[in-house]
Structures are given as C-alpha cells and as structure tokens.
Amino acid sequence: MLDQSINAAKITKLSQIDYEWLIQIALKLNLSNSIDYIYELIVYQSAKLLNADRVSLFLIDNDSHEVYTHLGMGLEGKEIRLPMGRGVAGTVAFTGQPINITDAELDPRPVRNYFGYATKTILAVPLKLNGTTIIGVVQALNKADGPFDERDERVLEILCSLAGVALERANSIREKEALDEKMIYQAQHDLETGLPNRALLLQRLSLDLEEAKRRQHELAVLMIDLDRFKLINDSLGHEVGDELLKQVAHRIKTSVRMNDLVTRLGGDEFVIVLSKIKSRQDVGKVAQNLLKAIQRPFYVDGTELFVTGSIGISMYPNLGKSVTELIRQADNAMYRVKAQGKNNYQFFAEEMSDIELRRLSLVTQLHKALEFEELMLFYQPQLNLQNGKLVGMEALLRWKHRELGMISPAEFIPLAEETGLVVPIGNWVLNDACKQTKKWQLAGFPPVRMSVNVSAVQFNRNDFIGVVREALHASQLDPQYLELELTEGLLLQDIQGAAAKLKELKKLGVYIAIDDFGTGYSSLRYLKQLPIDTLKIDQSFIRDMRIYDPAKGKDKALVEAIIMLGHNLGMNIIAEGVELQEHVDFLRDSKCEEIQGYIFCKPIPALEIETFMAQGGPGERLSATLLNNHPGKPGLVEKAG
Ligand code: C2E
Ligand code: MG
Ligand code: MG
Fold first, then answer.
1. Is domain 198-350 annotated with CATH 3.30.70.270?
2. Could you tell me the fold of the domain covering 8-184?
3. Does residue 380 have its Cβ closer than 6 Å to ligand 1?
C-alpha cells in the first residue's frame, strides 16, 4: 500500500525516466529483507534522483522524543539529534508533512549549519511504515544548484512510500525469524535451567561423534543423576527441588570447560559430552571434580541442602559406537554406581547390562509383588543386655519372588522409593506388623515393642500420621508397643517440619528410633530438637570393632561416645549387627541397653518367632551363652536371672 498522500495529479508531472528509475528502485527494495540495506538504498538513491549534495536519514527515538541521524552523507560518524517538533527534520517527524525550503537564508525557521556546510535549499519528507506510522525523515540538502522543485518533492515522497512498504515487510520477517528462533531455542532447551535438552544433546552428540570418528579423537559421555533427589522433592516441595536443580546445573556448568556440552535430560539427570579428551584418567578427574562440586552444600530458601550424585561414563571408541549406545551405556554405568552405594563414578563395562536388566524387571514385578502376596515380614528379636530379656523386635520386609527366590530389601526398597511404591508397601508393613504384634499379645506371649522401618517417602507424605493412627486403630494395638525407625538423613532435610510431625506421632503414644545412626550426617545438633526415644547404632561401627587394630580402635571410642551422647539426651541405645561375643562384652561394659544381631538370632518368620518365645524366653538362652560365661562380670549373672 502506497502512501495515501501521493497525489495522482502531481505524479503525472514525472518523466518517463523518473518512472523507470523508481521502478528499478521498487524492484531492488522488493528483493531485500534487510532493514539496513533498505536504509542505505533510500539515502543513496534519493541523492541520485534529486541530484542532492547531501542526504541524511533521521530516525525517531521514541524514548527521548528526538530525531537522530541514523545514516547520512558527510556525517562522518557524528550524530545529530533534534527534539521532536524542532528544526526541519524534527518538525517533519512531528507533523508528518514534507518541508521544502527554497532559500534557507530567507526562511524564518532556524536551519543548522551542518559541520560548516552552508545550506541553501532543504527538502525533508517523512518516512512512514506502510504509509501510516512515522518512523523517520529523509532530508536532502543542496548548496547552490538551485532549489528542489515539485518534481523532486514527489520523487522523494514516492521513494519513501516504496521504502515504507519494504520496511514493513522486512520488519515482519525479522519478527517472524525472531519468533522462529525463540521456538527453536525452546524446543532445544530445558527452560528451567537454560541447558540444552535431550533433542539438542542427540543432535550435538551425533556431530561430535562424526568429528571424533573423522579425526580419530576420543569422546566421553557422562550421565549424572542426583542421589535421593526424589526425597528432597517430595519432602521440601517442587519449588525447592526446581531451585536446587538450577543451582546444580550451574555448578556442573562451571565445573567443566567452556566448550564441553552440558545438557539436562529431564528430572535430575544431566548429560555431559567431553569431545576432545586425552585420556581416560582425565575423564575420571572431570567426574571427581563434578562429584566434589555437587557435594558442597546448596542453599535454597535459607535451608542448607546436601546432595550427592552418581556418574556413569561411556566412551567412544572404547565400547560405544553410536549416539544411542553411548547414552545407554552411560546410563547403565550410572545405575551400577547407584546399586553400589551412590556418590561415585564408574566407566561402562560390558557385563553391566545384566544389572540393568534385573533392575528393570524388578521394578515391573514389584508392582505385582503386593498383589500376589509375595511380600512377607520377618522379625528379628532385640534383647536387653543387662537381663537378657526379649524387649522388642524389628519387622524386616522380605520379597519371596516366584522365580528369583528371596530378594533383599536392600535391593528392592531403593527401587520402591524411586517409584513411589514404597508408600503402599510401607502401609502394608505397618498394618501387618501391628496386627501380628496384637495377635501375639492375645495369644498370651509377653508383650514386646515392634519396630517398623519407615522410608522418607512415606514419612514425608501429608497423610502419614493418619496412616499410623489407622494402623493402630485397625489392629487395636496399644501405641506404646509400636516404634517407628527413621533415618537421620530423612529428619535433617527439614528439621522444623520433621520436629512438628514427630510431635504429632508422640501424641499418638508411639516410640521413635533413629536407624543406622552415625552413617548420615556428622551434625548432632538436631538431635536435641527432636523427640527421639531410641538411637540405633549402625552395624558398620559394631562390625569394625572386631578388628583389633589401633587405627580401627577409633570405632570403639566412637561407639562409646554415641552411647554417652544418647544417654545424656535421655535416649535408649540399641546396637544392631551384633555378631560376636566381644561385641556383647564391650557394649555391656559401655552401658548400651539393647542389642540386635546374628549372635543370638537372625530375622525369622512369624512362626519361628513363636517357637523362639515359647522356648521359655531368650533371657535364659542368652544368660547361658552370652552373659553368664563372661569372666569378671559376675554381677550380670544375678541380674540376668
Ligand atoms: P535396617 O533397618 O538397618 O535393618 C537391619 C538389617 O541388618 C537387616 O537387613 C538385618 O537382617 C541385618 N542384620 C541384623 N543383624 C545382623 C548381623 O548381626 N549381622 C549382619 N551382617 N546383618 C544383620 P535386611 O533385613 O536385609 O534389611 C536391610 C534394610 O532394608 C533395613 O536396614 C532397612 O533399611 C530396609 N528395610 C527392611 N524392611 C523394611 C521395611 O519394611 N520398610 C522400609 N522402608 N525399609 C525396610
Ligand atoms: Mg531398621
Ligand atoms: Mg539399621
């Protein structure tokens, strides 16, 4: 659409040559989508068409309400600025009407003497986008060669109209390109962290792989997965989880070189491609640095969070030959790290696929385990060390798989936690353990405390207290016989939240134990803030006590310290994993109240527990085998009796 102001009557005054010229210009404008090119064309073509000494293009600066020279002949990089409505260009920009000054000396308007250039005549025409919005002014100057006439004014107006249409088109193309670029960016990036996503990883990795093949370089793919991220997400909320991921992404990015590719696959999984590496050792160092970087505490919302990561590494040309192979292998290796205790890295090795296969099949079959009644509880007795009496037992989950046989909870509980299945499974355990305890009481066995393991995923759910209340109600078990075992890490994630929840649980009348004490965080501050009844010293400390090695002697000191600390805080202490007579002696001397371990009983099914209890009580057995025979401790015999 051409400028409406072009008057058909006046156009007729133009010559054949003018038309041809303008058509040429229109064709050139039509071919270009570059705004800069269009501006240049306006300036240089109008100088030619008008035979002007100088032509400048002013653009409007909407922020400062000024016009300024964007492009022009004779400006030599200098910029002229005029307020809107002032001077010739400012007035044209303001009114939208052309100005033609035939003799500057006689004109009342102030005409600037541009850089010593004595202007005689001036023609200024507005430049409008699509004939409507004024965006600038084209201004032609002449020294002496006679004034600009009506033909000049019309030619310049037509030129500006043609340019206005071309500019509008170029603008919309540019906007569309920017939009396309934005959409491509969004399709290839994870918007949470700003890192490239899986799509871009696949694209870039295949380019890197081709390059590595051509140049015979080595290439490494590192897959990082945060350990126990789901727990943080579930317990502290998704906002905290998202913020943590952002910070982790930043740490990872700043721990590798600029040109290493860092991507996020989704969730808490990141993939890094190291494209030009010298040796496997270098890759190992990068992995170590990454682990260290992730281990440093994170601060989210004023909370200090500790996380670790597991890294799996695959390498070209070692075993991985294609993009999918490299990613799958890194993933396999990562799962192996998880299975072997997390917070470490490992290179892919062929035999790993078995582990992955088993893991995959276990996850799918775990869904059926509850339904098929393949889950059952074993019970492990806990004894009082001073009198040898049975004081409690721990319910330990067993999965009796139709084909694979007995599967250890150490293997499937983490899978159940990852998939969320630990919630229904844990509820079943709680209910079953309460019912069994009540059943034994009704059958006339002396009542003892039942300890039930609770996973963080269960504990952090809003309905957890209701679930416990319901299990007590359904079984009619007196709450004083139920103890919940929680881990340190779980409580530490959100001390205030945990404290509030524990208080609610205490109101129900149940007991609270900390399981695996000593393995989580070295900080003991939190213990005082929480209503905890029992500390279970982790079996690793007890196990290490058997070695009479001065260096390992530290563990004895540690166990003593834990017992003292617990006593000072008014807690009951139980040692688990007690396998040797020496353990018993040392623990009794250190005033540890209770023990649990293979030395007197492994975890056994409910029926065997009944036999165990019916055999006249473990007190006599224990006093005979463990306490009585100990020379130099006669006092204990009397107590045990
Ligand atoms: P845990 O709660 O620390 O349980 C103690 C583990 O030590 C049990 O392993 C037990 O069989 C083993 N143990 C007991 N005495 C000895 C000993 O003298 N020597 C040695 N070497 N080991 C001993 P288990 O039954 O394989 O359970 C492993 C872990 O699985 C448990 O550790 C607990 O964290 C988890 N778990 C078991 N049942 C449940 C459950 O119902 N819910 C949840 N969330 N976790 C469970
Ligand atoms: Mg336990
Ligand atoms: Mg334990």
1. yes
2. Beta-Lactamase (3.30.450)
3. yes
